[in-house]
Amino acid sequence: MKKIILFLLMTLSFSGFGQKLKDSILSKKLDTYRHLTISLPPSYDRETKKVYPLLFLLDGDYLFDPFQGAISYGNYWDDLPEVIIVGLAQNRENERDSDCTFDDSTGLPEGKGESFFEFIGGELLPFLQNKYRISPFKMIAGHDVTAGYMNLFLYKDNPLFNAYISLSPELATEMEVRVAERLGTFKQNMFYYQSSADGDIKKMRSKIATLDENIKAANNPNLNYKYDDFKGASHYSLVLYSIPSALYQFFAAYQPISTSEFQEKIVKLESGYVDYLKNKYEILEKALGIKMNIRLNDFKAIEAAILKNKAYNEFELLAQLSKKMYPKSMLGDYHMAMFYENTGDIKNAVRYYQNGFQMQEIGDLTKDMMLGKADELRVQIKKK
């Protein structure tokens, strides 16, 4: 556990990536300014047409830095995408408690709690969407009372957020039942994470465990759900364990093909290796709103699966896909050459290796390699 804490603390050193800004919004609902800390991705100014997922943090005073550190670290290794992070300050004049005011009998917001709910949906989100390039995929996170409060957005017919990170939530009246029932109804992709620990506040753990049981019983195939119950952690330290767990759960589809994914899923397929690759990135776009070129290393993984299973006809399909993704590179010609070489048409294999020589190098594919392969196959033709 000490090693995990050390790792998580180290992620904070990555928080220098991108832009960290201060902003504020005058709320008519709350009759005051509310203050924000915003992290824009490193590519934000460079890729001016790109949109980014939103990670909105209640308790932004203390959740902002650990979330930004985890995102920056994961993005450095291409395990997590770039996101826009917005942290809302709630530590002035008991704002946190008054923001999250509930009616004890109904479990619904009342007074300032109701105004705060309307502020987020009617003022803050439109303000952010008008000012920053935000994609349709929006996450919200909170800790204890704010984690419980954010569940209210699930009650709306069209929830404002697609993903919820609930860190040791203090659940309002009947929330352990209502949230599970609501999560069981969604026809679109939804993401929900919650956590607790054996050192967590005891009066909260019972409801959290019941909510976990009820969500699992709902068994909604459209729900991406995970519950962590950490051993040896407290109400406060569980936050540092939970953040990477939640983010890596939500963005599993974004991550490059790993050794375990290759061995446990891809190489065991009898066919459809190229379809697997296309589906991986289609899910990424459909569920998370992230559109990106297929990584070169993911192409290499599918190449390896095709060769291992001798499914050589799939190289032709792979060539069509690689030509679409990297039209100026030699990757498409290389895959066509692999198709012909492994299906016995050496002359056409030579032709495509030669064609590839005229295209841009990519990864470990070089002009010398393409010419070398062509020359090697010419020798085989002469021997025949």
TrEMBL record:
Q: Which residues form a coiled coil?
A: none
| A Pfam short name | Esterase
Listed GO molecular functions?
Answer: hydrolase activity
Q: Does the keyword Hydrolase apply?
A: yes
**Per its UniProt record, what InterPro entries does this chain match?**
AB_hydrolase_fold, Esterase-like, Siderophore_Hydrolase_D, TPR-like_helical_dom_sf
- Keyword list, A-Z: Hydrolase
- The leader peptide range reads none
> What does the similarity note say?
Belongs to the esterase D family.
State the protein's name. Answer: Alpha/beta hydrolase-fold protein
Q: Which organism is it from?
A: Flavobacterium cheonanense
- High-level lineage: Bacteria, Pseudomonadati, Bacteroidota, Flavobacteriia, Flavobacteriales
